[in-house]
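Record 1 of the preview.
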Amino acid sequence: MLYELISMVHSELNFSYTLVPSKDGKYGIQTKNNEWTGQIGLVQRSELDLSIMDLTVLFERSKVK
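->
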């Protein structure tokens, strides 16, 4: 379903994208040194511009900048 969504948006807005899996296969958790893993960490570190996934919004994740 998410792939279909990004495909539709791509068709309408005519931009390029690359599907990149999480390096550790995780959505993202905060480590003891306040760094984030998974997809959350990739976006936070600007390794990705956008992440489309079925993500549970947790209080900790809502504070990521």
